[in-house]
Fold each of these.
Amino acid sequence: MSDYNFAYLDEQTKRMIRRAILKALAVPGYQVPFASREMPMPYGWGTGGVQVSAACLVPEDRLKVIDQGADDTTNAVSIRRFFERTAGVATTGRTAEATLIQTRHRIPEEPLTRDQILVYQVPIPEPLRFLEPRETETRKMHSLEEYGLVHVKLYEDIARHGQIATSYAYPVKVEGRYVMDPSPIPKFDNPKLESAAVQLFGAGREQRIYALPPHCKVVSLDFEDHPFEATKADHACDLCGSGTSYLDEVIVDDAGGRMFVCSDTDYCEGRRDAGHRGRLAAINQEDAA
Amino acid sequence: MTPLLQVNGLTKRYGARIGCADVSFDLCPGEVMGIVGESGSGKSTLLNCLAGHLEADSGAVVFNTRADGPRDVRLMAEPERRMLARTDWAFVHQNPRDGLRMGVSAGGNVGERLMAVGARHYGGIRGQALDWLDRVEIAADRIDDRPTAFSGGMQQRLQIARNLVTGPRLVFMDEPTGGLDVSVQARLLDLLRGLVREMGLSAVIVTHDLAVVRLLAHRLMVMKSGHVVEAGLTDQVLDDPQHGYTQLLVSSVLQA
């Protein structure tokens, strides 16, 4: 074990963050200010998520960290190692085994359960930020429930592109009250925001925490004649053959060759272990052999 | 007839200085009130106090609301006042850049107020936007252009369309023709006069251009150093000015 306090932050700091989390859970979608600390990583690398995770972790927890759906990318690996060192908690890549999942830009494909906590890393918590630059004004708009401006953004999308082109960080209305930025998850994941798990959102630089309690009503904003659609690439996964998971497009050569693979690596591996095969799975195995 | 707007003893001070002092008037439905005066006479302060952009120090601004009859706007809760400001009221700024969203297309600008009061049908919003662009003489194929691509006169007309789309009953205008060249001014005034008649709008127009009030306003208030020095029917005040300052003002205009 190290010389750090459990999970890096001191107990008073964790207490302060927990209070913010409780308040956020009590008012779903409301951005609670908190005294964000400097973390030993740059802003934009998940300082908010890490603080929320640190405040929620207990020694019995099993931690999973996802970055864009993958468990093995730099951000995920470094945060997982950070908590292995400072908290000594067990870690896993398996969604079902994890009790606390910190994520960046994705929600796992596998439905979460009531025993799990999902922590999001949020770069910009304010859904109205690019519509109204004044912080005083956006706060007033939230408090008075003046959300017409969000639809102006969607209107502009349709006017310019013929459809709602916002594909990530798609604004949602929580419990018919607060408009919330679900962090930059693809809009494909928006329906999954209504979940059995507790979902916490931490923005370190912007010093805000917000939350969705289990089974909270989350509606993606849209127009009557242009309803919300959870879109994904129109393909099946080339490794596991899944036709329902969110896909990454990977360029494989200089001749325009490409493949589509599940963005959720754990989900994809699970399916392959269960014997599912996609279009290119056999070729890849030959390559490996 | 119940006046649409009753103003009683409205006073705004900036510390020891007077913004506007003890202003009272009634505005009937369909009536256009002009406020003239030199720079610094408190015209804009008065207008901003009326529209709720500035907090007045004392006095009452009673608006005849659709739902509950006459209510003092200054005693309303903020959500109510802001709701009023985007449904029954409109505010046309002197500089269209203050009143428009420059990063949003013309259609989005016109549609914003509709969406703010709950319109959620894209086709419907766009239809109304097209209708209003036509009424302010902006070509339909400019609907997806941003205001930055518009001329000053077009921007001002777009601002008017954006304000009138929810069918307000009271319009505040702060020098709507300022900064436009005379031929564009004439067209804009023509348009405004038509819209005011057609929609039965009441309006409070602040300007330092006497020609504008002569064309648009039924009644006129002349302000100097924060006080109303003369008020009456427009023609009466302009043709037979009583107060020394009004006489000076009227005689300063070059007769073309």
Amino acid sequence: MSITAEEQQASHEHTHGAPSGLKRWLYTTNHKDIGSLYLLFSLLMFLTGGAMAMVIRAELFQPGMQLVDPHFFNQMTTVHGLVMVFGAVMPAFTGLANWMIPMMIGAPDMALPRMNNWSFWILPFAFAILLMSLFMEGGGPAFGWTFYAPLSTTYSNDNTALFVFAVHIMGISSIMGAINVIVTIVNMRASGMTWMKLPLFVWTWLITAFLLIAVMPVLAGAVTMVLTDKYFGTSFFDAAGGGDPVMFQHIFWFFGHPEVYIMILPAFGIISTIVPTFSRKKLFGYASMVYATSSIALLSFVVWAHHMFTTGMPLAGELFFMYATMLISVPTGVKVFNWVATMWRGAISFEIPMMFAIAFIVLFTLGGFSGLMLAITPADFQYHDTYFVVAHFHYVLVTGAVFSIMAAAYYWLPKWTGNMYNETLAQWHFWMSLVSVNVLFFPMHFVGLAGMPRRIPDYALQFADFNAIISVGGFVFGLSQLLFVAVVFKCIRGGESVPDKVWDGAEGLEWQVASPAPYHTFSKPPKVD
Amino acid sequence: MHTPLLKKLVLAVLGMFAFAFALVPLYDVFCDITGLNGKMDLVVAEQSSEIDKSRKVDVSFTTHAKSSAPFSVKAQQYSVTVQPGKLSEVEFVAQNLSDKARVMQAIPSVSPGQAAKYLHKLACFCFDQQSLDAHQTMKFTLRFYVDTELPADVQELTLSYTLYDITSNTAQAQNNSTPLLSVAEHTYLRGQNNG
């Protein structure tokens, strides 16, 4: 690894005449370029979805109707959810996969580079379609990101077709990304990289990719049925025509529950990479991590109806889905204990990625506990559709998935750019986020338990104080993320140079390549022992 | 080198897309077999041969018109107490509240859901689409019995009808040269054949 980045870059441009400027990005088939595109796009969507959350929190700052009318409020909650799930979290993980998987398994690029270009470049169109519908007559989708029938069929506006096509395109993009990941991992590992030597980030992404292939087509089917029910007179979800609206929820959550693991399994991989590095120990229980991840993925297919306890299921069904759901906490607990055991008696240092990782372990576990509470069927009747649910899934998605993405960004940014991030700014970002995110989401548990329903722009007076606190937390958390943007762009533009092995405790092939990572790596496969 | 794996994965994607649509009939079959979801067959039942005189079950009736359906259907009795196996009759009065001729479809469901397959109907206005002229009032007789196999813990059950205005659907079907039979019509026809 004696060739420097500049030389590699120069020789590349000499031999291939890589296009510069905009064309470089439009035509690129390089996994690092596409990874960067995914990550920057996801950052943009994170800020877009965040701006919508700010509108929601501003309206909920006081009881009564202040800023926006209820229909627009509904559009904000809906599009915030869609943008964050499909625009921020999923593309961020795909971006990390593009950047890191080839470098971690010693492959020169992704297996299907042209398809890779496609799967990124259709995404901006999907979100352009979705976001444009907000400005059209009748407005954007306002039926919640779960688009339950008949809200999305009988009672939706004519722009619903745009929502459907946007989701179709997002689904196609994810599926192509997943296919690429699987083919890369199965076919392009360096010799000697056996299955049980794969870095955990690669393992978790492989399992995630299989989940994507299994459920994204089901989502595509669900939106297609909504489309034909609304525009072509079919009756999949219309009881008058012999259909059943409850069936919508079954089909949606058959996709929806594995989807939440799609958004957390790569996070498990990231944390399993970062914690050993800064504990300066090998990961405790590698094999059990692999098996735990697989069993979570398998169990995710048999728990979907825990989202539907209040639809009037028979007792046997409620019991089955309650116990199956609780069973998931066993492999998840294995993971949490393994991370803690990895830190146990380690020589721990608290760099920013490690801080985010530790915050992840504590706060994700907290979100897991509220999930266990929700799994208890009789209790769920009280919690259903309240802010308790909102608190639960924001703990697992914001302090879970989003924190892990930030940990990964801080962990690998020096490798990507060759520059260390600004430590002071990063410290500010971490502490501001950590405090404000808890001010934002923790009181939601209380208002939820007290009965405040979600997705409603107004509330009873007794919730006023907590909502004001929640909104303040929300504004501070939103503004703190601008610090993250500053850190990222400062780091891209310059900073203290870093050695090839940025972190002294880090292991893995990605630390054998130069910093910043050259445009082409592992053109000759490395030796893995 | 990548093609064989790629083909398998693409096939898996297509298979899962098809599976999403296969879930629709699977869901119906599953509910049919298990009697979950309170779904009832629109099928004419045969009279029961035995009567369980040791038990009494309360059956209540409720009707509910979908928001845009201008119908009112009321049971003459709020509830009846029956012996399992014994045939009972209840009168329903239906009225079209609008100024136009309308076609009504009633969809029955039973609560608790497990009891759905133990309530048998010999005659029901829900077996047919009912055409009602403007402001016309009609009387229907529901003839039903509760199965003797009804689980012992069910002591009362509610038969609920949701009323739908399907005037526009039927008009469409008549105008169409190749009529698209809706699922309800299929079920209805199946019911007629069985009866």
